[in-house]
Write a structure and sequence with these properties.
Among the domains are: about 140 residues, Jelly Rolls (Sandwich); about 160 residues, Neuraminidase, CATH 2.120.10.10; about 230 residues, no CATH class. The chain has three helices and 59 strands. The relative contact order is 0.10.
Length: about 850
């Protein structure tokens, strides 16, 4: 979700407005005085956002609130302080911010419609707080303020023992960093992932898996002056990319919507992403925000029926001049297509001056159209039973303070039951509610998160069979405000699932989706109002889906790395392999690597398999003393240079075989590179680089940080690299999380981003470094076929110069040392 800055030319105010002052200017809450009131204004809107400091006297004023209440008073669950300001004219707009005695923001509310703002401070610490009212829109606005002790306690669901198991997370793309990923489970084991692009000249990224989320390929265009890429992205003629969404209809059409600079483009594929047709301007209204798609139950492609729906809101605006009225009303626009996405026409407008945050847009099994959203401190559901011709609004739950996320989740199960989930203000609990009458009436909310994820953000909902519902979120064990969480706060991706989610007293199992922390420190959920790049780096949500076999498929972000500032997120995908909702079967941690899938050009009908780039198995690890031995298994390693001659008629100048893993909050890697001269080098690092060029912001490279020793064994089809534990911050007992191997070809020295192209990747696995000998026999020294001492480059263009296979030969002799040496130990499964 974005906020569009608009400069409006308005005449200078005719009169100078007197400096406002709250009456009284301060007040105290105590166990005996549980409510206080004040009046404020007049304040005049100046398009200010973010709680300006210092506070301009004409457009901003402060009230000093002392909370004289000890911690024992808040032992009652759900206790806290509600702070509310209210004014008369709904066309005016005031914003509300609260700061603690140290000046740190602890709460804010800036709805885009309505006549009030309200926040909830859960169990606030004893002390003095500044309640700041800021004029965003309107002239000489007066208001009433109130602070009161209250409770918003919500009962928890029945907690059931967890038996869900998930695969180690898969890195969707080792080169592209992106936030707020969406995921779509499609027929035939296909899984699609989308995430916004940070490059204005590209549409958002789309990845596809053909093996049930074990491995992925990017479907985007590449920009490179010297390395041709014949693939086509979903909408290559669009300008900019952000806020994408993916659906498929009953005819098998795949739709992809992407927010552009002034409109929404919608691309359509009839062959599950191999080819696309794009309409760059699809929305019926310009200057829009956050598009969502939903399939229609009547889809017939070129026939007369409605095939799909497109919903979006007006773009929130920031005025840089004093204004007297809102720039434009905030509402939901609903468009439809009757020709398979070629053209879109307006169908309806709803939630005018009510909607604040546009949540999930989805269709029920009977064709009913639903849209979950927030507004006026409540959770709402829009419902249409006539394909959008008319829309009914139902209030799911009235809250104290606006739900603490821009987006809320929703879905329907196979029986038509409707489910909505959100994060509550102040408490940051994940709450969910259900309806068994298609959204007309709602059960009282229930809390899903437990102590292990005490603070939660970014919920998403996926439903499957009748009563089968999963809700995911990022959660931290600490009881903190997400935006002001200490740097040591560790966040994980979580999911809760139920078989009887529509019951009055449902039971849920909860499990972590992520093996390691996905984020460290604060998370800002204020959208584009966030001014902390690291806290904003996860954007606004992540998504889950449920596959036909009952497996939960989740796409989420991971930037829980200590060495980046700010860290950039990888897109990860994990899939459920056993437990609740799945048929009984033995769990398999790692998927099998497919043979013959290293095709170049990728996704091209004329593409041919390149054996030198084709992994025949997932990478393996052996260890001894203070060294790990990493091995790649390939269809052919007799001539690594063949990887270059077979790709793009020799235009590529380097081929790289790369392994990455995460350990001790670091992403580490080891690789072998060969160039057109046949020179081969081995290197490693613990700091993927995004460079200093703003165009490279979302693109990661893997520069050489230190040389490694390695060998090539043509007889056994393997590449072996030795990894000193100390150099890689490793020790016995550590787990190498999400280890994967990637093969790439390209022009690393080219001054363009994504100049190296991913050809093949292996499924993810997590491997533990053992702590004692396993008795595995030491491997024989491999036979070295290639020699060379010429400089080579690490992936991404960082120069390295080392005696590659000359050193490798000496290393091979070292391997033939005395037999009394301690044997190598094989890895053990880390999960």
């Amino acid at each position: 979700m974005r906020r569009l800055s608009v400069s409006l030319a308005f005449a200078v105010l005719a009169a100078v407005v007197a400096a406002p002052a709250a009456t009284p200017q301060k007040g105290t809450l105590s166990p005996l005085q549980r409510s206080i009131r004040w009046t404020g204004g007049p304040v005049t809107g100046a398009g200010l956002a973010g709680g300006p400091d210092p506070c301009p006297s004409v457009s901003c004023e402060d009230f000093s609130l002392t909370v004289d209440i000890g911690p024992s008073f808040w032992q009652r669950p759900g206790g806290g302080v509600a702070i509310r300001i209210q004014w008369e004219d709904r066309q005016d707009d005031l914003d509300l911010y609260v700061y603690d005695s140290a000046g740190s923001e602890v709460a804010h509310s800036f709805q885009v419609a309505g006549d009030f703002e309200e926040v909830f401070l859960a169990a606030p610490a004893h002390g003095t707080y500044i309640v700041r009212t800021v004029g965003f829109d309107g002239t000489a606005v007066t208001y009433d303020g109130r602070a009161s002790v209250t409770s918003i306690a919500t009962p928890a669901v029945r907690a059931l023992p967890n038996d869900m198991q998930f695969t180690p997370p898969t890195i969707v793309d080792p080169q592209i960093s992106a936030a707020e990923p969406g995921v779509l489970q499609a027929p035939g084991g296909r899984v699609f992932v989308t995430a916004p692009s940070a490059i204005e000249s590209l549409s958002s990224h789309v990845w596809r898996s053909l093996d049930g989320a074990r491995t992925f390929e990017v479907l985007d265009n590449r920009i490179s002056a010297s390395f041709a890429d014949p693939r086509h992205g979903p909408c290559s003629d669009a300008i900019g990319g952000a806020d994408g969404d993916l659906i498929f209809d009953r005819t098998g059409r795949l739709y992809f919507a992407d927010l552009e600079s002034f409109s929404v483009n919608v691309a359509v594929s009839m062959d599950w992403g191999d080819n696309w047709t794009c309409r760059a301007i699809s929305s019926s209204t310009p200057l829009v925000d956050r598009p969502w798609l939903a399939p229609a139950s009547t889809a017939d492609g070129s026939g007369p029926n409605i095939d799909a729906y497109l919903a979006y809101t007006d773009a929130p605006t920031v005025s840089t001049q004093p204004v007297t009225k809102q720039v434009k009303p905030f509402e939901v626009h609903l468009d439809v297509t009757t020709d398979g996405g070629e053209h879109w026409t307006r169908r309806n407008i709803y939630a005018r001056s009510l909607i604040h945050g546009p949540g999930r847009f989805f269709t029920g099994p009977d064709g009913t159209l639903y849209h979950a959203f927030t507004g006026e401190n409540a959770v709402w559901l829009a419902r249409s039973r006539d394909q959008g011709a008319t829309v009914e609004l139902a209030k799911v739950s009235q809250r104290v303070g606006l739900p603490a996320n821009i987006f809320i989740g929703g879905d329907t199960d196979a029986a038509g039951n409707v489910f909505v989930a959100w994060v509550d203000s102040g408490t940051y609990d994940v709450l969910y509610s259900s309806s068994v009458d298609h959204g007309a009436h709602w059960r009282s909310p229930r809390r899903l998160n437990g102590p292990s994820s005490e603070t939660a953000v970014m919920p998403w909902v996926a439903a499957g069979r009748a009563g089968d519902v999963a809700v995911a979120w990022y959660g931290a064990a600490a009881d903190v405000s997400p935006g002001s969480a200490p740097a040591s706060t560790a966040w994980h991706a979580w999911v809760a699932r139920s078989r009887d989610a529509a019951a009055k007293e449902p039971g849920f199992e909860a499990a972590r989706l992520s093996e390691t922390p996905t984020h460290l420190g604060p998370i800002c959920v204020g959208g584009q109002s966030c001014d902390d790049t690291a806290a904003r780096s996860l954007a606004d949500f992540f998504q889950i889906d449920i596959a036909p076999d009952g497996a939960i498929v989740a796409a989420y972000n991971d930037n829980g790395r200590l060495q980046d500032a700010p860290p950039q997120p990888y897109v990860l995908v994990t899939r459920q392999i056993a437990g609740l909702g799945m048929p009984p079967r033995s769990a398999s941690v790692a998927g099998l690597e497919r043979r013959g899938d290293a095709r170049f050009p990728p996704r091209s009908g004329g593409g041919e398999d390149v054996p030198a780039l084709d992994f025949s198995a997932s990478p393996s690890v052996a260890w001894r003393a203070d060294t790990l031995r990493l091995s790649f298994a390939l269809a052919s390693v007799g001539d690594p240079g063949s990887a270059l001659t077979a790709t793009n008629a020799g235009i590529a100048t380097a081929a790289t075989w790369l392994a990455t893993w995460k350990a001790n909050d670091r992403v580490e890697y080891a690789a072998m590179t060969t160039d057109v001269s046949g020179a081969t080098s081995f290197f490693g690092g613990d700091h993927p680089d995004r460079g200093s060029d703003p165009r490279l912001y979302p693109y990661l490279t893997y520069p050489e940080q230190f040389p490694l020793e390695g060998v090539i064994d043509p007889q056994h089809g393997s590449i072996t690299i030795d990894i000193p534990l100390g150099t890689f911050h490793l020790k016995p007992g550590d787990v190498l999380h999400s280890m994967q191997a990637f093969s790439l070809v390209g022009v690393p020295e080219a001054a363009t981003f994504l100049s190296s192209q991913l050809v093949d990747m292996t499924p993810s696995q997590s491997l533990a470094i053992g702590t004692r000998s396993s008795g595995v026999r030491e491997p024989r020294a491999p036979r070295v076929e290639h020699r060379g001492t010429l400089p080579a480059t690490g992936l991404g263009g960082s120069p390295i110069a080392l005696p590659a296979l000359g050193g490798a030969f000496a290393f091979a002799l070292w391997l033939r040392g005395p037999r009394r040496r301690k044997p190598w130990n094989r890895h053990t499964a880390g999960r």
